[in-house]
Write a structure and sequence with these properties.
Number of helices: 19
Distance between the termini: 54 Å
Number of strands: 17
Strand order of the largest sheet: 3-2-1-12-13-7
Strand content: 5-15%
CATH topology of the largest domain: Rossmann fold
Bound molecules: 5'-O-[(L-methionyl)-sulphamoyl]adenosine
Amino acid sequence: MEKKTFYITTPIYYPSGKFHIGTAYTTTLVDTIKKYKKMRGYDAYMLTGLDEHGQKIQEVAKKLGRTPKEHVDIMAEEAKKLWKLMEIEYDDFIRTTDEHHEKAVTKIVEKFIENGDIYKGSYEGWYCMPCETYYTETQLIDGKCPECNREVKKMKEESYFFNMKKYQDKLLKLYEEHPDFILPEFRKNEIFSNFIKPGLEDLCITRTTFDWGIKMPNDPKHVLYVWVDALTNYITALGYMSDDDTLFKKYWPAQFQVVGKDIIRFHGIYWPIFLMSLGLEIPEHIYAHGYIVMKDGKMSKSKGNVIYPENLISRYGIDATKYYLLRELSFSQDSLFTPEGFVERFNYDLCNDLGNLLNRTIGMINKYFGGCLKADLSVEKDIDKNMHNFISEKINLVEKNMDEYRISDAIAEIWNIIARTNKYIDETSPWVLAKNEEKEYLSLVMYNLVDSLRKIAILIMPFMKNTSNSMFNQLGINDDKLKSWDSLYQNNCLKEINVIEKGEPLFLRLDSDEEVQYIKDVMHGG
Ligand code: MSP
């Protein structure tokens, strides 16, 4: 039987500077969902890449004494290096300077023209250079850019426009028929009341103020403004409008497109309208996450509060870094990054709760059974049944949350399983069973601990693969079937238990003061 497809995308990032933890968060989230879907039997395909055109990139390159092309080539290597370091398993990395993308975008714009969706006019508005966005007078906040709070400039230029107004009713219908097209719901409501209800504005799609971009067909003085070039990456990467569109036929429409809250407007309005104009299907969900913010507000180099993923990974490892990001960022709101919070999660959640559970279990199996045992499952008591039931319920909740893309909530449920298993050790008091020579029941308790750890290792696999593998190794579980998602509901699949002689700590406890200081130092560029 053909597997069900699942197409998931990150935004394509501006290669304007070093990629920070915000970008790493989006990519990790998407990668985790992709890996989860794969474990659930989907043919999952992940796209990421770079948004390489535009005035901002042209200016950054100039400042660095590079041509725009030299600059984006360097940045593309940096992005790929970072994703490799973070063990991100993307299927394609698109760059908007890729020839096949540029050609396809030209054809897409020609199709817009053919449909009568483009007209020439002149645009006057308040322009925010860093955001590359025009705003109307009413959109400004205290006369400044509503997105980044920086100065805006009044500008007028001859431009091509996309007739968005024409699609107002169709867009409203889409929102009505697909109430969960934009997630979370309150973001949809925001877009609706701020941009759709007052009436859509036509979108200016070209600029004459810079030349680093794809030329307007038949009018090369005009360069396509980034959003037409950028948004269409999700389909050109699959071969739309190219000779080979096999992937496009297979994977489009996307199931889940992840963006930050600042760009949900573009994805919630312009993107579906472009697709409507092209006669293509609309993605199932566009999801906007909140921001990672610092105690003193948004991350910025000038404030000296930027966190780069490499600094955390080199000291605490990939798994701990991903764990923190995914656990700390909620489905809908902004989340605060604090060095104290990072160290706390490392010490409590990873070292104490998870690491110690594995270590204690392996220690006891070595001590009481010389590392090897077979259990008689028929001696099960209510305590054991209770734990099994609890874990099965929680596995269900992990799945439900993962399926609803609430990754942080799913991880919290996994940690409930860990806490419950730790409690099971206290409830059954294996040291008392050993003293009383209740070997038969003691072996069942050990069996249950190993089986619970096996399930935990499966559940964390999409985002903590190294830890998961280390757990399987230490527990002596080699059979892939016992590592599969399907085996989560089986309680009796381990024939014999054979753990390693001496457990290795999954995470070494951190000295809080020292590590908080380290993180603060690297935030200030130390
Ligand atoms: N190039 C556009 C996207 C085009 S998609 C067709 C862009 N690039 S960006 O590099 O500025 O931002 C990329 C993503 O990173 C956005 O989704 C943005 O929300 C996200 N983040 C930037 N800073 C962030 C945080 N501090 N926290 C979380 N995500 C953040 O916009």
